[in-house]
Design a protein that fits this description.
With 488 residues, the protein is α/β, with parallel strands linked by helices. It is 19% helix and 17% strand. The chain has four domains: 52 residues, no CATH class; 45 residues, Low-density Lipoprotein Receptor, CATH 4.10.400.10; 286 residues, Glycoside hydrolase/deacetylase (TIM Barrel, Alpha-Beta Barrel); 39 residues, no CATH class. Strand 10, helix 6 and strand 11 form a beta-alpha-beta unit.
Length: 488
């Protein structure tokens, strides 16, 4: 019984190194064995726990990952007070344990580093020291910021979209959902947050969304597979290449101001342990929105990572941060409920639902928030979900219903954080400048063009040509990690 994948211990010896056998792997959960197989051309790396090109896998003969011994820590006999012991008794400075770098000869300093075992882990919420606007926590994650009476709290709805913005979804965004006719109680148009990856994105369209007041956030350059790479294998350098690289691309080719690119979501919602959050802290990201909380009633409010997160790390082989990252916000994903099912992103909900089911699900979950603690109600989409006409109509009906409420606002993630930093009653929202709808003051070069440059660019890395749409001059190469400006 383990959360790690392994090979068949009874596989024939003469087939160990065959691609057929090396591509198979298994998982044992609650006494039941599940069988998996890598995609064609890939083999399973039992050490890294991922499928990779067969030339990169050199452990087909190993049945299971060797367990890493548990460090002795303060049980070791170390002469210096600020040192702990590895499993073999080697003494190292305390800060070397679970810092992402292997230091113990037996590697035990990095083998037990989850939220429950990291010896340098963040402590539980301490309200004596955690104060807004820079810190927010509660023991179970459900408390309202500022101790406001729930009846005076605006119900924020956070619409977020993951994936490239391009011709396939531009009409949905520009003509259907955000035409300007749907407005908040303060008469400002409803807004959304777009987590934009690089591949297949039209940067002219991104620039238009930003011009119109929507939030543009980051979702990596490559969106590479396998999913578990983000949680287990991505180094701090990889995180910089992927996330800061995409921020640079958005700034260069869509003119989105760097100081406004402050949020990110990891592809596949695969949280990247402390390495992800070290990168975020160093670059200056304000928030992450990748962690899925277990279903709870009432739902959870966003929180800062000054203290231990108020929920378990949900998902198979997820790798949530264990350390404290002061002032860094987590816009936690509250799951939707439909009957006996729960789902994080709406397009992960049961596929057999019809339009009426979708409308009932949206209404039910809205009430879960509105009639309890009014934690922000997040709705997380890929644009492809709206291709089903009955789903689109159900969503529009829901939009038109809830916008009749005098205290329901569709806001961006950053607007939600700004309210949480300075929580005020619904009847005083005019005091929050970012919630007003004054037109964004744009420099000439920041205005989206009417006709984009369509660049046919060669990618040396991808070994193919790609079309690239931008209001800026065409780069020499297709932008990619470690060459985000497309230099020759």
């Amino acid at each position: 019984e383990s959360s790690h994948f392994y090979r068949d211990p009874n596989r024939p010896v003469h087939k160990i190194w065959t691609n057929v056998e090396c591509s198979k792997y298994y998982l044992c959960l609650e006494g039941e064995v599940f069988h998996f197989k890598c995609s064609e051309g890939l083999n399973f790396d039992v050490i890294r726990q991922i499928c990779d090109f067969k030339q990169n896998v050199e452990n087909c003969h190993i049945t299971a990952e060797t367990p890493i011994p548990k460090p002795l820590l303060d049980k070791a006999t170390c002469t210096e007070l600020d040192h702990w012991g590895c499993a073999d008794g080697t003494c190292l400075p305390n800060e070397y344990f679970c810092d992402g770098s292997l230091d113990c000869p037996d590697e035990s300093d990095e083998g037990w580093c989850d939220v429950n075992n990291d010896p340098n882990a963040a402590g539980p919420c301490d309200l004596r020291y955690c104060r807004l606007p820079d810190c927010f926590c509660s023991k179970d994650g459900t408390h309202i910021p500022g101790f406001l009476d729930v009846r005076s709290v605006p119900q924020m709805i956070l619409l977020t979209f993951d994936g490239p913005v391009n011709f396939e979804n531009w009409e949905l965004f520009s003509q259907t959902l955000f035409k300007g006719n749907r407005r908040n109680p303060n008469n400002c148009p409803i807004k959304a947050t777009f987590f934009v990856p690089h591949s297949y994105t039209n940067y002219q369209y991104v620039q238009k969304l930003w011009n119109n007041g929507h939030e543009i956030a980051v979702q990596s350059v490559t969106q590479r597979s396998p999913e578990i790479w983000w949680s287990k294998n991505a180094t701090i350098e990889d995180w910089f290449d992927e996330m800061v690289g995409q921020a640079n691309i958005l700034n260069r080719f869509a003119s989105v101001r760097m100081e406004e690119i402050r949020g990110m979501r990891v592809p596949f919602l695969r949280v990247g342990w402390n390495r992800q959050f070290l990168m975020m802290k160093e670059f200056g990201f304000v928030y992450d929105s990748s962690m899925v909380a277990p279903f709870s009633n009432p739902p959870l409010w966003p929180y800062t990572l000054d203290y231990k997160m108020p929920h378990t790390c949900t998902g198979m082989q997820q790798n949530c941060p264990s350390r404290s990252y002061s002032g860094l916000w987590e816009l936690v994903i509250n799951q939707l409920e439909y009957g006996d099912y729960t789902c994080s992103m709406i397009d992960n909900c049961p596929v057999y639902l019809n339009g009426d089911d979708i409308y009932r699900m949206l209404t039910h979950n809205f009430k879960r928030h509105y009639l309890s603690n009014r934690a922000p109600f997040g709705l997380y989409f890929h644009a492809l979900w709206f291709k089903k006409t009955e789903y689109l109509n159900a969503f529009l009906k829901f939009l038109d219903d809830v916008k009749k409420f005098p205290d329901v606002y569709f806001v961006t993630n950053q607007q939600a954080i700004q309210w949480m930093r300075h929580p005020i009653a619904s009847n005083q929202l005019h005091q929050i400048e970012s919630w007003n709808c004054k037109p964004k003051k744009l420099e000439t070069h920041e205005l989206a063009c009417q006709i984009a440059n369509i660049c046919k660019l060669r990618s040396r890395v991808l070994q193919q040509d790609r079309y690239f749409h931008t209001c800026k001059e065409c780069p020499a190469q297709y932008p990619w990690i470690r060459n985000e400006f497309g230099l020759d």
